[in-house]
């Protein structure tokens, strides 16, 4: 086994929790994230998301804004009040594109806010949260900010 294979086998994949009531969107996110080496956990609503996060905290949380039970902003607020989980990076991925919705999502504790429909490349800069967490400094996975499977946009983003 080569040194590179040994290192990647020993390094656990970053876990991303995807909470959305749309199973098709969860499938799309899984198909985009898993080939890039992320492990994906799914939740169909905010209540299940909190259960999964408390059972095994992920490296990154991707939340829909409107879900049955707890909404995305409500999940954010609960996570930010939890001394153990408040550091988790959270991306709100939603169809709610009005400025007041974005402000409400960010005020609830989301670190980033992406609007559906989205391009998969939009996730790569956000996925850098997995390498350091909320309290750290962003470090790009590659020099242009994308994992190896992400086609380069030609823009160099570092730091």
Query: How much strand?
Result: 5-15%
Rough outline:
globular
Query: Helical proportion?
Result: 25-40%
Q: How many beta-strand segments? A: 5
Continuous helix count: 7
| CATH architecture classification | 3-Layer(aba) Sandwich
Q: What are the secondary-structure elements, in order, as H or E? A: HEHEHEHEHEHH
The chain-level structural class is alpha/beta
CATH class: Alpha Beta
User: What's the story with the biggest beta sheet?
Assistant: 5 strands, parallel
Q: What is the C-alpha radius of gyration, as a whole number of Å?
A: 15 Å
The average pLDDT score comes to 78
CA-CA gap between termini:
33 Å
CATH topology descriptor: Rossmann fold
CATH superfamily: Response regulator
Number of domains: 1
List strands and helices in order, with pairings.
Layout: H1 3-10, E1 15-19, H2 23-33, E2 39-43, H3 46-55, E3 60-63, H4 72-81, E4 90-94, H5 99-108, E5 112-115, H6 123-127, H7 129-132
Parallel strand pairs: 1-2, 1-3, 3-4, 4-5
Helix pairs in contact: 3-4, 4-5
Key structural traits:
159 residues; alpha/beta; Rossmann fold; five-stranded parallel β-sheet; 5 strands; 36% helix; globular; disordered N terminus; disordered C terminus
């Amino acid at each position: 086994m080569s040194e590179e294979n040994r290192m990647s086998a020993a390094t656990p994949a970053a876990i991303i929790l995807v909470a959305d009531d749309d199973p098709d969107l969860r499938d799309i996110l899984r198909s985009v994230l898993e080939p890039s080496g992320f492990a994906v956990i799914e939740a169909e609503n905010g209540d299940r998301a909190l259960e999964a996060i408390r059972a095994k905290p992920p490296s990154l949380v991707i939340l829909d804004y409107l879900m049955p039970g707890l909404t995305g902003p409500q999940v954010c607020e609960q996570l930010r009040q939890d001394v153990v989980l408040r550091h988790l990076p959270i991306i709100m991925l939603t169809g709610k594109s009005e400025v007041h919705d974005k402000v409400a999502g960010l005020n609830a504790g989301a670190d980033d806010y992406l609007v559906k429909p989205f391009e998969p490349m939009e996730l790569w800069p956000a996925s850098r949260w997995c390498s350091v967490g909320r309290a750290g400094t962003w470090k790009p996975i590659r020099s242009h900010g994308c994992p190896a499977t992400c086609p380069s946009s030609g823009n160099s983003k570092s730091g």
